[in-house]
Design goal:
It is built from 5 helices and no strands. It has about 170 residues and is mainly α. The longest helix has about 35 residues.
Length: about 170
C-alpha cells in the first residue's frame, strides 16, 4: 500500500533483502498496541481477541473472494481471446452468488463466531442480534472496502490530473 501511494511511500520501500522493513515495523507496533490494550483492560486473549479478529477475518476473506469473482468477469469481458463463457462468466457469477449467500449467513450469525451477543440472547436462535462492538466488527471489512475505494478514486483522479498537466 505504501508503494501504491495509499499509505506513505516510506512504508513500501524495500530493504536490501527485498522486504518492506518499515511497513513490517509499523504492523508489528500496531499489533503490539492492540495486545497491550487487551492486557491493560484485562481482556481474555482467547475468548475476545482471538475470536473477534478471527471472525472478522473470515468475513473479510469471503468479501475478497466475492471481489475476485467480479474481477474475473471484468477482466475476461475485456480480454476474451481463448476463453470459454463457462470459465469466464458463468462459474465466477455462480461462485459470487454462493459466496454472497455464505457471507450473509456468516454475518447474520456473527455472534456465534465472535461471541458478541448481548446478555440473555441465544445466538443459535436469533440472527442479527449483536452488541455495538459486534456490529462494528462484522461491518469493519465493508468500512475498510469503502475507505479503500474512496482513497483509490482520489488517488486515481489525482494521477489523471497530474498526467493531464504534464501533457
Amino acid at each position: 500500500m505504501g508503494r501504491s501511494g495509499a499509505l506513505p511511500k516510506g512504508l513500501g520501500q524495500a530493504n536490501a533483502v527485498g522486504s518492506p522493513l518499515r511497513g513490517s515495523v509499523v504492523v508489528s507496533v500496531i499489533a503490539g498496541v492492540v495486545i497491550a490494550i487487551f492486557a491493560v483492560t484485562g481482556g481474555d486473549p482467547i475468548l475476545q481477541m482471538f475470536f473477534w479478529f478471527s471472525a472478522m477475518a473470515v468475513v473479510a476473506i469471503v468479501l475478497v473472494e466475492i471481489l475476485v469473482c467480479a474481477a474475473i468477469v471484468r477482466y475476461f469481458r475485456k480480454n476474451t481471446e481463448g476463453s470459454s463463457p463457462f470459465a469466464t462468466l458463468i462459474a465466477p457469477i455462480a461462485a459470487a452468488v454462493g459466496l454472497a449467500l455464505g457471507e450473509y449467513l456468516l454475518m447474520s450469525r456473527f455472534g456465534l463466531l465472535a461471541g458478541t451477543v448481548p446478555e440473555g440472547v441465544d445466538p443459535a436462535v436469533e440472527a442479527w442480534v449483536l452488541t455495538p462492538l459486534g456490529y462494528f466488527l462484522v461491518f469493519a471489512p465493508f468500512i475498510a472496502l469503502a475507505i479503500g475505494f474512496a482513497v483509490g478514486s482520489v488517488k486515481k483522479s489525482d494521477s489523471k490530473e497530474l498526467q493531464d498537466m504534464m501533457r
